[in-house]
Amino acid sequence: METLVSTDLSEKISNLLAQKKWYEVKNLLSKLYPADIAEIIDKLPVEQQVIILRLLPKDLASDVFSELDTSVQEDIIKNLTNEQVKNIIESLDADDRTQLLEELPPKMTRRLINLLSDQERKEALRLLGYPEDSVGRLMTPDYVAIKKDWTIAKALDHIKEFGKDAETIDMIYVIDDDWRLIDDIPIRRIILSDPQQTVEQIMDHHFVSMNVRTDQEEAIKIFEKYNLPAIPVTDDQGHLLGIVTFDDILDVMREEHTEDFAKYSGLDTESVGSDFITQLKTAPIRTIIRARVTWLLALLLMDVITGSIIQGFENTIAKYVVLVTFLPVLVDTAGNAGSQSATLIIRALALGTVKMKDWIFMLGKELLVASGLGLIMGAGISIMGFVRGNAQIAKVVVVAMFVNVIIGSLIGVLLPFIFTKLKKDPATASTPLITTLADIIGTAVYLTIATLMLG
């Protein structure tokens, strides 16, 4: 993916920093968006990263800091004074600060929390107290709330006074005297209403909210369904606690997709985190090895079973050596069919178009699909059977192909449902796992069919 910031600009800023031309650096950076500045910082050595953050105004420094990857943030924090760190993290939005505190090492997290003011520390600890993957960890308390008995004029004055510190003012939230959420109103409707009307007169009493313990994956589905810029978060009694904005959900979606991709590819991200995938160029070799070796070792042990199966049919193979030449294509096709099935089911489960209760229906449907695919693939391999062997061999490989495609496809359908039932991410039904199971079962099925049909 090409960068939006030119390499020349990054090198120019690096050279200016080396020459200590601070004013010119500030002038260049002042014309850029925080995300662009973060992209430049990411390419610089940590010493120059720290200098840039010191040169930026406090608010801009916080915006830039929130755009950086956690590993870069950690390196910068190590090289800043406590006062400089405090200025940055206290200016961060509550949701960005929570994400930072979650991902940093515990020792550094304690350091940052201790630097916060009493009020900010209480807020950070409160947010960190919610379940790890809940919207409580994403929400920000920076929103604008009004009362239903206020006039529109009073509501607008309130929005002007407090809106500048809010995460967004696209939606304004209506609460009662106990801070219970009773409605949300688009800012456009408030602006276009008669100033003498009351807020209650323009309310429609239709709003979408999420419980503070709602899982982040479920929150993604809610945002996709209602297409809102922000959704309020409430407790079990309906009290308004905060809001989750669309940009926060986009970050979660990106992280979820990265994690699912890693799991489906057979990578272990639980022990090393998933950041190394997006920073592959700079990721330590040891980290990459740790992420990849777990599944490879597990699959290696499973592949030993395949060898044992082949050894058990050595008499059949010795008599019909040509059978071995069909083994790779049979088991590979079964594995590929299973991977296709798993991909479709995993995505459907993620989108919510397929539920856990649909497993029998989807299994039956896949049986019909796999039968059709098996017939087509069987017809394709029959030609090879006649060319390499004879009519008997052709019959064996056709039947084995048909059966193996069905078995591989059913494995691909069942595994995501099994992992879901076990409260595991269905993406854990990875391609390597499916293909290895298809190898083991497919080899046994093929050689059993060959033994029975060839006597």
Order of helices and strands: HHHHHHHHHHEHEEHEHEEHHHHHHHH
- Outline type: elongated
Number of helices: 21
Q: Calculate Rg over CA atoms.
A: 29 Å
Q: What would CATH call the class of the largest domain?
A: Mainly Alpha
CATH topology of the largest domain: Tetracycline Repressor, domain 2
Could you describe the largest sheet, including whether it forms a barrel? Answer: 3 strands, mixed
Cα distance spanning the termini: 58 Å
Mean pLDDT: 86
Q: How many distinct folded domains?
A: 3
**Strand arrangement, major sheet:** 1-2-3
Which residues sit in consecutive blocks of at least 5 with pLDDT less than 50?
none
Q: Structural class, judged by helices and strands? A: mainly alpha
Beta content: 5-15%
CATH architecture descriptor name of the largest domain: Orthogonal Bundle
The CATH superfamily of the largest domain bears the name SLC41 divalent cation transporters, integral membrane domain
Number of strand segments: 6
- Percent helix, as a range, is 55-70%
Question: What does this protein structure show overall?
Answer:
By secondary structure, this protein is mainly alpha-helical. The protein has three domains: 7-129, MgtE N-terminal fold (Alpha Horseshoe), CATH 1.25.60; 145-250, CBS-domain; 283-454, Tetracycline Repressor, domain 2, CATH 1.10.357. The protein is built from 21 helices and six strands. It has helices at 7-18, 22-29, 34-42, 46-55, 58-67, 70-78, 82-91, 94-103, 106-115, 118-128, 152-162, 187-191, 216-226, 246-264, 275-278, 285-312, 314-319, 327-351, 359-388, 391-421, 431-454; strands spanning 145-147, 171-175, 181-186, 210-211, 230-234, 240-245. The chain has a three-stranded mixed sheet with strand order 1-2-3. A three-stranded mixed sheet has the order 4-5-6. Helix 8 runs antiparallel to helix 9 (106-115). The longest helix is centred in the C-terminal third of the chain and has 31 residues, at 391-421. The radius of gyration is 29 Å and the shape is elongated. The mean pLDDT is 86.
